[in-house]
Design a protein that fits this description.
alpha+beta, tt1808, chain A
Length: 190
């Protein structure tokens, strides 16, 4: 994906007032074992598989049948604009799990120990998502993005030509807050 520079760029508190959300005992048990393992292995792949996917699957379970989750798929929207490549994770506001369908509401970019290194790529994916939604006749006013190391999660919002990055980073030790933010994103997108 191409590096994207928005016309307006804001750093602000986006989700600090969102309430924590309950989550399953299964996720609690999974993370209690997986987080130390992933941080010991300390690779992007380990963090992605052992931390990020269990969180996203929990979000999927709680929101079914409203959303679908995709991992590691090609997302070629407009090669001329450089809006093509593989996305780590895409959440679509569609129950269709076999093919990616609009509207795309959230993209998750996993990075190894450096949130800032994933911001530009996530922003480009968000712009591509907006274009993809428009092409499918499902334009959304707001597109959400997430950059995560597995341990830290940072959320973004694209509205019009304004990209907002949450000044707060959310640690996996507060997974209830992270789940709450995802639930709010899904609610606002409906």
């Amino acid at each position: 994906m191409k590096v994207y520079t928005p016309q307006n760029f804001l750093i602000e508190s986006l989700f600090s007032d969102i309430a924590d959300s309950a989550y399953s005992d299964h996720l609690k048990e999974t993370l209690s074992y997986n987080v130390p393992l992933a941080t010991s292995i300390n690779t992007e792949k380990a963090r992605s598989e052992l931390i990020v996917i269990p969180v996203l699957v929990e979000v999927l379970k709680q929101a079914q049948p409203q959303i679908s989750l995709f991992s590691g798929i090609e997302f070629n929207v407009d090669k001329n604009q450089g809006l093509n490549g593989v996305c780590d994770y895409i959440i679509s506001l569609s129950p269709e799990q076999l093919i990616l369908d609009a509207p795309i509401i959230t993209l998750v970019e996993a990075k190894n120990d450096n949130l800032k290194s994933g911001l530009a790529q996530c922003m480009a994916e968000m712009v591509a998502s907006r274009l993809f939604n428009q092409q499918k006749g499902q334009a959304l006013e707001t597109i959400y993005g997430v950059v995560t190391t597995g341990s830290l999660w940072n959320f973004l919002i694209l509205r019009g030509q304004t990209m907002s990055v949450d000044r707060d980073e959310y640690h996996i030790s507060n997974v209830a807050k992270i789940i709450g933010i995802f639930r709010e994103i899904i609610k606002q997108s409906n």
